[in-house]
TrEMBL record:
SUPFAM superfamilies per record: Thioredoxin-like (SSF52833)
Residue intervals of the DSBA-like thioredoxin domain: 4-131
PANTHER family in the cross-refs: GLUTATHIONE S-TRANSFERASE KAPPA (PTHR13887), THIOREDOXIN SUPERFAMILY PROTEIN (PTHR13887:SF41)
Coiled-coil intervals: none
GO molecular function: oxidoreductase activity
Cross-referenced InterPro entries: DSBA-like_thioredoxin_dom (IPR001853), Thioredoxin-like_sf (IPR036249)
Name listed for the protein in its UniProt record: DSBA-like thioredoxin domain-containing protein
Pfam families linked: DSBA (PF01323)
Listed transmembrane segments: none
Amino acid sequence: MVPYMKSVGEECGIKFSYGGHVGNTFDSHRLIWKAREDGGSDLQDKMVESLFKAYFEDEKSLGEDQVLKECCEEVFGNTSTIMEDSSIGNEEVMQEMEYFRNKYHVRGVPFFVVDGKYELSGAQPSEAFLEIFEQLK
């Protein structure tokens, strides 16, 4: 799977490097939530891209506060109060996790829900998404 992901990533300009330590990613989910709260889907996408680059390309741990602060700086322009107050977004992220766990029986990531009714679990080839998008036309 890793060689396949690297080749697909290169086609999209992503240089996957799987040397990073995973760690606890709960705070990264809080940052994604905060970005959506502050700036909608556009800012949320920027945060996800920053986090993914840190982990998948730069081999940084999303469990380290310094890495998350760097992502905040890049996306929000500052380290954001969410990194100073660990209670911000906790309840909301826990509710989202519970919702997806119960509704879709999510047990791991990646997990994709398209249009609220099509589910894809695990890494999927682009054709799997294209089939769903065709059905949505």
